[in-house]
TrEMBL record, chain A:
<dbReference type="GO" id="GO:0042773">
    <property type="term" value="P:ATP synthesis coupled electron transport"/>
</dbReference>
<keyword id="KW-0813">Transport</keyword>
<keyword id="KW-1278">Translocase</keyword>
<keyword id="KW-1133">Transmembrane helix</keyword>
<keyword id="KW-1003">Cell membrane</keyword>
<keyword id="KW-0874">Quinone</keyword>
<comment type="function">
    <text>NDH-1 shuttles electrons from NADH, via FMN and iron-sulfur (Fe-S) centers, to quinones in the respiratory chain. The immediate electron acceptor for the enzyme in this species is believed to be a menaquinone. Couples the redox reaction to proton translocation (for every two electrons transferred, four hydrogen ions are translocated across the cytoplasmic membrane), and thus conserves the redox energy in a proton gradient.</text>
</comment>
<comment type="subunit">
    <text>NDH-1 is composed of 14 different subunits. Subunits NuoA, H, J, K, L, M, N constitute the membrane sector of the complex.</text>
</comment>
<keyword id="KW-0812">Transmembrane</keyword>
Automatic annotation (TrEMBL), chain B:
<keyword id="KW-1003">Cell membrane</keyword>
<keyword id="KW-0812">Transmembrane</keyword>
<feature type="transmembrane region" description="Helical">
    <location>
        <begin position="33"/>
        <end position="51"/>
    </location>
</feature>
<dbReference type="GO" id="GO:0008137">
    <property type="term" value="F:NADH dehydrogenase (ubiquinone) activity"/>
</dbReference>
<feature type="transmembrane region" description="Helical">
    <location>
        <begin position="57"/>
        <end position="80"/>
    </location>
</feature>
<dbReference type="GO" id="GO:0048038">
    <property type="term" value="F:quinone binding"/>
</dbReference>
<keyword id="KW-1133">Transmembrane helix</keyword>
<dbReference type="Pfam" id="PF00499">
    <property type="entry name" value="Oxidored_q3"/>
</dbReference>
<keyword id="KW-0472">Membrane</keyword>
Amino acid sequence: MPVQYYIFLSIALFCIGVTGVLMRRNAIIIFMCVELMLNAVNLLLVAFSKMWADAGRVDASGAQIFVFFIMVVAAAEVAVGLAIIVMVYRNSQSVDINIMNRLKN
Amino acid sequence: MGMSLQQIVFGVLSIIAIISALGVILSKNPVTSVLCLIVTFFTIAGHYIMLNAQFLAVVHIIVYAGAIMVLFLFVIMLMNLNAEIEPQKRNWLKYAGAISGGALLLVLLGALREADVTPIQPGSADIGLISNLGKTLFNQYVVPFEVSSILFLSAMVGAVIIGKRES
């Protein structure tokens, strides 16, 4: 089975995430789309890890360690990001990101 | 030419993943988005199992579906956002976002369509088992592991400080 299929699936998921970030105004949805993009990249890393393992490389599990670290960073990011969103909501009663343009002045 | 079992499973999982990912960005209700994203994560875990990454599949389900999405649901329900309708002003911005995302899709597909990579075999390799990953993690990648623990500690402190009500 060609590894191209996994490349195409990852591209589709990543572009859906990018489109969501650009289209939506709700900060929580934007955050979830960032998670979707991270997962598309993770899937591609795992597919390439399998590809190199089939080719006989003994260090192919390094890619899976990378995926592990990406999950760690995503968990830390979610904790801080949701705290920020809760604070923004507490101060302005909204999670619309157009609210945040008051940082401009 | 008949399709192998591996290709059938791949196709079904991929179709469910893409449809539920579209559901994330197209649904009006944030709770529906969260549920669609959980479905996407489960299909990605299925892909991990097909790619001999069994440990990552389990960790993925525990971390994402078990911790991160529950946190999202908590926040959405705590702030009572589950019936929020986004303001429909500036509709052209939405179309511009959709067109930009579609253009990025076309560019990436065009760039990687002819990529010459070797196909993957359905046979099993033991790269994703926990003993193998543990040896790699604690021999080659022990310094990043320690750094990530510091990252976690600082993220925890940061979340508590940000979330604290000012008195």
